């Protein structure tokens, strides 16, 4: 902890010494400058640029129209007829009897006793504190009397 305090004090001392030298030199420089305003700057005139002339665009040549030969008029081939399949016949299902299983009997559930709960205590619930919405004013000390 002592190292950080010493380091902070050293940094503060270096910063104050550098800033005080620069401040005094800047103040001296400001005092030595004349109070006359600097002269207004004038902008040089720009000479006009020559107009460029472009050559005319070449004309687009006309292309000859292409003639296509007529399409051949061959008829489409006919599809062969689809053969019909005979309907399959399935053998009859065997008629076996499923044996009947005995029905299980469930045991009787014993009746649960009735439980009565004790009454709740009549203590009031704690209240939640509210967050203040106004900022309290801080009294400032009065300034010293003027002479």
What does this structure look like?
This protein has about 150 residues and is mainly α. Helices cover about 20% and strands about 0% of the residues. It has one helix spanning about 1-30. The protein is flat. The protein starts with a helix and ends in a 115-residue tail after the last helix.
Number of strands: 0
Q: Helix proportion of residues, in percent?
A: 10-25%
Query: Please, what is the average pLDDT?
Result: 83
Radius of gyration using CA atoms only: 55 Å
Give the low-confidence spans. Answer: none
Contiguous helical run count: 1
Terminal residue distance:
46 Å
The 3D shape can be described as: flat
Biggest beta-sheet profile = none
Secondary-structure-derived class: mainly alpha
Estimate what percentage of residues fall within beta strands: under 5%
In short:
The protein has 147 residues and is an all-alpha fold.
Give me the secondary-structure topology.
Layout: H1 2-32
Q: What attributes characterize this protein structure?
A:
21% helix; mainly alpha; 1 helix; 147 residues
